[in-house]
Design brief:
By secondary structure, the chain is an alpha/beta fold. The protein contains 14 helices and five strands. The radius of gyration is 31 Å and the shape is elongated.
Length: 335
Amino acid sequence: MNTTRPEPTTPDPSPAAADAGRVVLLTTSHRVAPGLLSWPAWQALRAADRVLCADGAHPQLPYLREAGTAVDEAAPTAEELVDACAGGRTVVVVATGEGEPALTDGLARLAGSGRVRMPELELLPASYDLSGARLLDLVQVMDRIRAECPWSSRQTHQGLAKYGIEEAYELVEAIEEGDRDELREELGDVLLQVVFHARIAEEDQDAPFSIDDVAGGIVAKLIHRHPHVFGDETASTPEEVKEHWLRTKAVEKRRESVTDGIPLAQPGLALAAKLASRVRTAGLEVPLPQAPGIGYELLALAARAEAEGVDPEAALRAAARAYRDAVRAAEGVAK
């Protein structure tokens, strides 16, 4: 059996080769509004002798036709497409969401046979995904799951609350373990919680809001709290940035106490450190309460850790992991 590969052929620059014509495979992103095509795409469409699309419901078709581009709803075979280009004609194929794999595979087989004079083939992306475009896919998938999944369709904010806490802890663990794959996955799980809660919130009868409202709110907050980036103020150190943030936040919230807004349900060490941080940042002199018992001793340790720039929760977790490893070593269990 002869396994020698044929030598690659050099395109024939002769007029005969030019007579084979040209195929432009036009791809678009469903994450970009239909009709927002690149200028090279519009040029190719306007210069084409024929424009084809296999999907009569393709979202681009109404906009192409409104712009004066005639589109034939057809799904030609590779052979038919080559024949349509004969005589130097240019045919633009508006690709469906799958990207026309059958057509491109057929063209590749014809080209590999060496028996057909092939037209020039160009892949032309007509629209591109912007950064964050896959978030649109997540929202669409969540919409469908909420509507069709027997479990997801019955969930409430209250029922999902425990999962938000679990996913946050798993994210912290991935960060502390330094596992990049786990970090990416856990970030996705945390993001799912945000999208899930926002989807549930859309159904509220009294005060509905959507994921767009959530995103719009945090965008406005970030811009307002970064006047050194989006405004006229300046900040050259992290300390100055934090000062801007706290000052702006205080004006927004109009809190009566520095302790307002601190979630009391968080873990005890984190709660104690947060209280100590608020007191220290506000420049208050408030002695720690003194009373017998391990709780007050832990409070003092958490305040000390915060003053020294140490996260007491992370420090205790690190010590606990070391203890776990010592236990496993004593048991003869590998890490």
